[in-house]
Amino acid sequence: MDIETVPTFELGDILATRCGNTLTGKFLTNSKIALIAYTHKNTNAFANCEQPSKDGVEDPVLIYIAQETTIYEEPLLRSLLSEANTTFNTLRKLGKNASKTEYINVSQAYRSIVRSCLEKLEQMKTTPKLQVDEAELRCSSEAITTFYAVECLWHLFEILYVQEQHNQMILAQLLKWTRFHFPQTEAHATDLLLMAEDASDRDDYWEILKTLIMLGEVSVTAAILTQNRKAGRDEFQEAISILKAMPVFEDGYALQKFRSQWEYWHVNGEHKLDANAFAAEPELELLMQLVVGKNEQWDEALCKSKEWYEYLPGYLLYTNPTCKPFDLRIAATAWLNRWSRLRPEWQMKTMSRMIKHLMAHDIKLFLFEMQQLNESNWFATHLIDLIYQSGQLNSYCEQRKIDLKSLRNSTVYNFGSFLMTSHKLWQLGIDYLDCCGEEGIAAINILLPRIPFKTERLALKLIAMARQRNLFEVEPEICKVLFKRSYDEERHGSALEWVIRSKDATVVTAMADFILKNYSKTGIFVCPDVITNIGARMFIAPRLVFLCKYFEFNELYRKRDFSSATKLLVNLLDSKITPSYFWPTLFIESIPLLESKEPMLTSKETVTILHHLETNLLPLIEQNMLETAIFPNLSSTVELKDYRIENVDEMVSVLRYACARNYSRTILKENTA
Amino acid sequence: MTGTNAQNVTTYYISEKVSQVRWLPELQQQSDRFVTGSWDIAKNYVRLWRLQQNPYVNQNVPIVPCCHDKVSMEDDVTGMEFVDKNTLAVGCGDGHLSVLKVQRAVEKDQIQRKARSELLHYFKSANTSRSASCTGVATFGTDIATVGDDGRLNVVNADNLQQVKRTIEADSVSLFAVVYANHQEIFTANGMGVVRMFDARASNEAQPNIAFVVGCQDEKNFNGVSCMTTHPMQKHILLCGSEEGSISVYDLRNLRYPASYLGAHNSRITDIAFHPKDPTKLFTAAESGEVWLWSEQKSLINASEEQEDYCAWLCGERVSDLVKVKGVLSNVCKPINSIDVHGMRLVCGSDAEIVFLADNV
């Protein structure tokens, strides 16, 4: 995609059309935008108008959700993301001090991921399902084009900047690169070799041979020529011997010696041509003219080639076989000028331009263009990360004032947040955000709780991830979402569990209040199995402690362990954590214990009860009465209710009598014993 | 590229987050087919894989899994167990249980859905009614027990999914694991670390009230039980893997206190499984991307202790001396969600969208 083209869309529904097809939008989570028809109304005009405008009344208001489309919607491309993620993590572990071979391995691993993905996509393209589904076919074709370009560029980058070339000799690698990316000729060559002698009759025989020579396939050309019907002739024998005699640089050669050998071979070839040794076979002569690098013939052939860089390595093979990266820079520029002169109508595409940047050592421009590619920065992120970790281009970046570290961090950050917010790829995204500085951690903090979770298992996974990273704000947030969800659905057990996990004292108190109030009203605990197992977690909030202890009292009472129950009840009365609305319930519990046949409460305990009745409950009752006197329509702030009583005052008098009776019999007993 | 300890571990990218893996049962030979279930992607599948000769010439990896067939599921696959040789029970995130049939063939194996239950797990209240995720599946004979986020325990028969044999309101919080101790006793575990026992024959109201809480290091946090298994020979030994990464061992004949408690991984234990034929070996998988092998040291066991019901796992604090731990898999970076072992091979499914195969375990 070019930077100049900005995508546009319009709503086009009735309402939007009526108001001039203008719209407004709002960003939602997961890079979605909600869009609605919108027209600006001046508030003054609105006030002057007696009737509101009819626009919004007659037509339905439609809300559209716009979402960024990416090529990763294709499921096959998922593997590209997940496998690259593993490689990314490997590189992260290697860090900046690994050996060169290890970085090369990483680079090759990335490329093999792309290649295997391309292979799968090509396979899928041929399946019958895709032949029918045009949209999907287009989608996968687009993916193939994009990632084909990515692989091609990465390969070239690897040759020029990652690999350590012996003596900086890059030509052999470059030839391999062009052959790999223009594979048709190789396929044709195989055909010719299989056809043996008959191949000579093919119409495109010489065309193919020419292409082979221009791609630098010298030995293959020689092999095909030896199969020619006329191979026995002198011209052919001569040509084959020249081709076979071509010196090839190998490791361990002295450069000077190679050069002189090559010069000798080259001059020899030119002499043969000048002597018209091939004049009887014009096609063969043309071939040999290409081999010695005659510009006229090359120019002619170039006019038919597809891409400017296709035959550059081949040309270098016949003109400058010891080409080094520095020479390549000059050669590439010269070659491109020549090409555009030959084909003035030709327009440079992004990929060709990027290859030019790489060859001309314009890394800065290359990095810039790389980020414009339409693949959500998969390429830029991983390649820049590799450049950063391997430190290969450090001196270049210093010269050009490129802040490689920030560049790397920002691309990794962008890619990470893209993954975090789309297509259930958050588990991959988090790895990228993990290693791009503080911004990344902050983004995780914001994005992690916003990952839509339906099940508790997923929620627990998110919590575990947050804990691993010491992001303490995430866990309470997720827990509270689950609490709210359970509470709204009246799953009180779940609500209680999650609110305790959130460790938020305010919300815990609210939940405990709900359970206690519900008990006062109905006499039923909503989730006894959960309350039983709160254990030491109760200390988050005093209200929760009260709930647990009161529940324990209830259980003891139910099991008829009255002496323990009584002790607990008195403790609760004395605890100072009793919520005011719960006083009546607590006092009611004491009545049967006071009235039991065998006295349960000592005289001292009885006094305690009486004391709390006078100092805690009665002021509340008075306050309530005062409030209702002033505001008779309003219900009182503290509701003093219990399912067992109708009137608090009545209970107070019953309790006073009970206390008095119990006190009188216990004080006697205690003092006589 | 993934870091693994042992040389004998191979990795396969399958482009799906794997929630469950199970070997197809084989009585006589090493199983070479397994099933995977995926979760948290747009379309979830149960896939049937078979190990085959690597079509590409690659000396390092002689065999590779090939996907033979798949069944599209409505939601995350959350539980998978084989009922018999060719019948697979699959619990799904939409609260339904499905039964899948495998057809083995020479060329291409097939897997098909035979039945799908009614909604087994759901939330219902005055203002809502929606499905709840099924979270675990256990089998005994032809019976299938499922548990879910709604705290229910259902028992159905594999031959008739439409008729639920028993529904028990087991818990008021989500259940995470379920296991059969014998044909009638079923154990469930929840996120608070409470393990309960239920009787498949008794009605909802007449359930025995038997429950215990697994131990934990940090009293302030809940230590949920995330997986359970029983000893393959001595069914009264129950192992619970927990959220904090510890293992609690219970002797079901004495539930008052745990027989042993071991700190193990430093993250949630996601799966725990004995080797079905060699119960001296136990495998645990963890959220942090580890798989460990625990092997009993036979040489350390005194002759006097060599009783019929002796088991190293019941030896309390001495367990750590009697059992040796070895890492099978580490540095995966992403949670390992499920493991299964058959014969000499271990298969693991991970959130890294990878299936790991370990040989010679």
From TrEMBL, chain A:
One of its GO terms (molecular function) is structural constituent of nuclear pore. It comes from the Eukaryota. It is found in: Nucleus, Nuclear pore complex. GO terms for biological process: mRNA export from nucleus; positive regulation of DNA-templated transcription; protein import into nucleus. GO terms for cellular component: nuclear membrane; nuclear pore outer ring. Keywords: Membrane, mRNA transport, Nuclear pore complex, Nucleus, Protein transport, Translocation, Transport. It holds the Pfam family Nucleopor_Nup85. Its main location: nucleus. Functions as a component of the nuclear pore complex (NPC). Belongs to the nucleoporin Nup85 family. Component of the nuclear pore complex (NPC). This is Nuclear pore complex protein Nup75. The gene is LOC115634554.
UniProtKB/TrEMBL annotation, chain B:
PROSITE patterns: WD_REPEATS_2 (PS50082). The keyword Repeat applies. It is found in: Nucleus. Keywords: Nucleus, Repeat, WD repeat. It holds the Pfam family WD40. InterPro entries: WD40/YVTN_repeat-like_dom_sf (IPR015943), WD40_repeat_dom_sf (IPR036322), WD40_rpt (IPR001680). It comes from the Eukaryota. Its main location: nucleus. GO terms for cellular component: nuclear pore outer ring. WD repeats lie at residues 262-295. The keyword Cytoplasm does not apply. This is Nucleoporin Nup43. It comes from Drosophila lebanonensis (Fruit fly). The gene is LOC115621160.
